[in-house]
Amino acid sequence: MNTGQTCRRVCSGLAWMAGLEGGDTGHGWTGSGGNSLLLPSGSSQAASFGKCFLDRFPPDSFVRMCQDLRVLNAVRDYHIGIPLTYSQYKQLTIQVLLDRLVLRRLYPLAIQICEYLRLPEVQGVSRILAHWACYKVQQKDVSDEDVARAINQKLGDTPGVSYSDIAARAYGCGRTELAIKLLEYEPRSGEQVPLLLKMKRSKLALSKAIESGDTDLVFTVLLHLKNELNRGDFFMTLRNQPMALSLYRQFCKYQELETLKDLYNQDDNHQELGSFHIRASYAAEERIEGRVAALQTAADAFYKAKNEFAAKATEDQMRLLRLQRRLEDELGGRFLDLSLHDTVTTLILGGHNKRAEQLARDFRIPDKRLWWLKLTALADLEDWEELEKFSKSKKSPIGYLPFVEICMKQHNKYEAKKYTSRVGPEQKVKALLLVGDVAQAADVAIEHRNEAELSLVLSHCTGATDGATADKIQRARAQAQKKMEGLEEEPLETLPTEQW
Amino acid sequence: MAFPHRPDAPELPDFSMLKRLARDQLIYLLEQQHEVDKLYKVESKPAVSSSEQLCFLVRPRIKNMRYIANLVNADKLAGRTRKYKVIFSPQKFYACEMVLEEEGIYGDVSCDEWAFSLLPLDVDLLSMELPEFFRDYFLEGDQRWINTVAQALHLLSTLYGPFPNCYGIGRCAKMSYELWRKLEDEEDGETKGRRPEIGHIFLLDRDMDFVTALCSQVVYEGLVDDTFRIKCGSVDFGPEVTSSDKSLKVLLNAEDKVFNEIRNEHFSNVFGFLSQKARNLQAQYDRRRGMDIKQMKNFVSQELKGLKQEHRLLSLHIGACESIMKKKTKQDFQELIKTEHALLEGFNIRESTSYIEEHIDRQVSPIESLRLMCLLSITENGLIPKDYRSLKTQYLQSYGPEHLLTFSNLRRAGLLTEQAPGDTLTAVESKVSKLVTDKAAGKITDAFSSLAKRSNFRAISKKLNLIPRVDGEYDLKVPRDMAYVFSGAYVPLSCRIIEQVLERRSWQGLDEVVRLLNCSELAFTDMTREDKASSESLRLILVVFLGGCTFSEISALRFLGREKGYRFIFLTTAVTNSARLMEAMSEVKA
Question: Localized where (chain A) (predicted)?
Fold first, then answer.
């Protein structure tokens, strides 16, 4: 390079720089060179050279101008044929220029420009790829398979590309199958659903919606399906989708009870059908006949479900309801909807012992329950005489400690003491302590030689009054200890850890 | 008492941010956007308000929609026009809009959403306050809340950085996790660069461990919850506690200094602690004797307020203790606990069964009876057919026939089931029992059931060593392991699983347990960006209970944390206990 050339270059470079600031050079045509983005034009080379002679010159505007010029050069190429001036280009903005390129299907160039200008993917490359794909799907001569594959190959997982939009376009061109294929690539299953619904692929939409985990979406599809399919088909579809089914059931439970029944009927789900009728018997029906009828239907359903237990229980309930109704008519008061236990209790409290007995027999109330029930009821009435009679009617299946307990609960020590003697040996100490007879409790415990009982009594010994008893226990303990050492036997019984 | 944390235990993340966030959002929503000036509770009775605009802040439930519809329609009938606004929290459901539409008021109301899902109840406890989650998911199979859980996790990870290690077990845990991951992928960029603050997250379904939730609680906080019901972190102490004629609403959290020291303690220690505390307090009061004026001035201005506050709290908790004692001794609480322990350990099944039967016969409490039946069923892999029938019959006779529906619910949820018939043993057994007396039959049944297939719970319990061997008495003052929350009789299964997985940093070696939990495909580990996590954050663990957790579990894990130098943070769909679980399954007459 000779000096003259250098001089010229510097001069033109400086002029170019001046142009940058004065807004001149860039506005005109910049020579004929540069049919590729990659080749710098002569004057920018000069500018680059000239820049070296300027201090404190910010490089940004230089870089930007170079980029713009390259873009302009590229689109001016005769293959493209968009001769723009710089100011036209600035007016137009890069986005619009890209749109124009896209409209002319110059996708590769558009993408090159985006990459060169480092536009964010969402505005740049992805957008163009999406446009490309939308164009691609209109090529009717290419098979669905090939188009879908080609699109996926190019697009991959590019962020910001919505496969569902492309699929929508494909559907718009009447290529439903292609649309479905494309939707397969959509990572957000939620996005697939609206289009699938539009394409009347509701069942597929349903499984996609379920996949998305968005119950609202599932519900949208369900209501769509409900209107689209006949009832039978709708139910069949639900049957294969447990998640959707339970969702729809939840809805029906509040809004469409009849549909719920049909659903169970369809599935031959007699168990749930039975439960449904039971619920119905409590919910709406006021009249007893209606309720019993509902229960009868329920019992039938339970039999069909081979749930003998529920069926029998339901039948019992029907019997009880009728009986309660009769009791209300004959005796007055409220019986309806009491449990069996409470019904009998109410009878005893009302003094209808005979009826109570009858009821207990009819419904085969177990002895133990009956005893607890009578015991509690009679104590509530404070009918001590009857209670005593009852206690002697036969051997108590629940022992006699409960008698002591219940009398003490009513603060009747006198009555309580009557029963202590009949309490079995295992619970005797406890009973004696309950009525406050520490001394006798100690005697029994010593007799039993039971360490646990001894300490229980000891813990009840208070202050001076029980001093003698406490000593007695200690002595007995010591004696037992000695005996044990002599016999070298296992200790009687270790202290249970009474803790909770 | 109130063991300190190890010095190297990590700091808890700051949840006050969540609180502020929620408060600001709510204020903005109510005051600025909707100009609300008066608040009413949504109840069954109609709201009395003459205002021109009504704004409902509700959970997206069909029941609530009905309530609103009735109100709007009543206004319409009365010829009144108002503006109605419905704000759904945490999100709007399409089904709700459907209901509004069907009731013909969709055009009259406008809808909005408030995506609020995390309520910090305490420094280490976040609650989603979704008690309905349990029934909706575990009984009805409704997955609507999973999205909410995923959103909540997403919010946590944007606030506190990504979680390098994730573990989980259960179907719901897996679904929530996958949905959450999807959310993160869709919206990535935000959390990627952040340093993780919380090193581990553990998701656990409630149905992995029903047993723990069904046990009576004996740790103070749990016991208060069982007895008085803690709602949203506060409790209503009735007149019997406050020893006045008024009820008092008390916030129970780490800020209550007295409560903070006893909350995790076994109840048997609490009284002793409180009386010691009372003596100390008295001593501090007494110091003022012999003070000169200046000292006195100091005392009054600086210490007296604190002492008074402490005094007030102390007397409240003493009152609560007394009230608990009174209630618990009345119902033979010890017997009950003994039965529970027997069930957990699996001995004297026959005796426990008759205890439960007596419990039912005496109509002690419908919920309690149900709880014991479920406990028996789960620990024994279902009841033997004979007991299944007889206990249910007894129950229906005692508490009303509508519970037939309750039983059907419990069976569906796997809480109360019948042992699979097919067992040849039971056939033999029923033949034998016809020949001999009742008592002997019981013994034979016992013998057979010990021969029969051991229940999953028993096998798990053995594998994980849930029933600690006790040599001598378990010292509840100085707990040795997490079993202390159940008087040393049982280590909570859920907590043990968490402990084991954290120790191994995976599910490796726990295959058998996972299989027994019927979760072969539902246990997962995901270790990602470990390298970025500081050692401190790796000792911070977020445990997510889907379907609720109990205070006992929280106490047990707090204990584990203190032992190992971890800190646990809890996220639960709601704080629960045995009674709440049972009530969620019960059907009551409408």
Answer: Late endosome membrane; Lysosome membrane
Instruction: Tell if the CB–CB gap between B95 and A369 is shorter than 8 Å.
Output: no
DSSP string spanning A296-340?
HHHHHHHHHTT-HHHHHHHHHHHHHHHHHHHHHHHH-S--TT--H
Instruction: Identify all chain B residues contacting A499, using CB atoms and an 8 Å cutoff.
Output: 268, 473-474, 476, 487
- For residues B304 and B272, membership in a common domain is answered with yes
Q: List the single residue in A with minimal CA-CA distance to B406.
A: A275
CB of B483 less than 8 A from some CB of A = no
With cut-offs at 50, 70 and 90, classify the pLDDT of residue B431.
low
> Per-residue pLDDT tens for B189-229?
555 567 788 889 999 999 999 999 999 999 999 999 999 99
Least trusted range by pLDDT, from A292-296, B110-114, B139-143, B528-532: B528-532
Statement to judge: residues B226 and B198 lie in one domain? no
Three-class DSSP category at B468: coil
Whether pTM > 0.95 for this model: the answer is no
ipTM over 0.85: no
The structural domain count of chain B equals 4
* Residue B73 belongs to domain spanning: 33-113
A342 to chain B: which residues are within 8 Å by CB?
A: 400
Q: Is residue B5 situated within a structural domain?
A: no
Please answer yes or no on whether A282 and B186 come within 8 Å at the CB atom: no
Per-residue pLDDT reduced to its tens digit, B54-66: 888 888 888 888 8
Asked if the C-beta of B143 comes within 8 angstroms of chain A's C-beta atoms, the answer is yes
- Among B141, B218, B358, beta carbon nearest to A500: B218
- For range A28-50, the mean pLDDT: 52
Domain boundary among B379, B402, B418: B418
CB pairs A-B closer than 8 Å? 130
Q: Rounded to whole angstroms, how far apart are CA atoms B156 and B120?
A: 12
For tokens 């027994």, the residue is B516
CA separation for the pair B246, B560 (Å, rounded):
39
Q: Which residues pair with B130 in a beta bridge?
A: none
To which residue do tokens 């309520």 refer? B119
Query: Last residue of some domain: B418, B443, B465?
Result: B418
Contact B394 A369 (CB under 8 A): yes
The verdict on B572 and B557 lying in the same domain is yes
Query: Smallest Cβ distance to B487: which of A317, A337, A500?
Result: A500
Chain A contacts of B363, Cβ < 8 Å? 341
DSSP letter, residue B348: -
Q: Between B146, B401, B590, which is nearest A317 by CB?
A: B401
pLDDT reported for residue A36: 40
Residue type, B532: K
Say whether B95 and A337 touch across the interface (CB within 8 A): no
- Among chain A residues, the shortest Cα distance to B388 is held by A309
- Whether B454 is covered by a domain: the verdict is no
Between CA A103 and CA B126 the distance in angstroms is 54
Instruction: Examine the domain organization and report whether B203 and B238 are in the same domain.
Output: no
- Measured CA distances, A94 to A110, A129, A287 (Å): 10, 17, 79
Q: What is the pLDDT of residues B530-562, one digit of tens each?
A: 566 677 888 899 999 999 999 999 999 999 999
What's A79-120 look like in SS3?
Answer: CCCCCCCHHHHHHHHHHHHHHHHHHCCCHHHHHHHHHHHCCC
Tell me if A215 and B143 make a contact (CB, 8 A cut-off).
yes
The residue in chain B having the minimum alpha-carbon distance to the alpha carbon of residue A363 is: B397
Report CB contact under 8 Å: A339, B400: yes
Mean pLDDT value across residues B356-382: 92
Q: What does each C-alpha distance from B312 to B249, B322, B566 come to in angstroms?
A: 13, 16, 33
- CA distances B474 to A495, B266, B463, Å, are 14, 12, 21
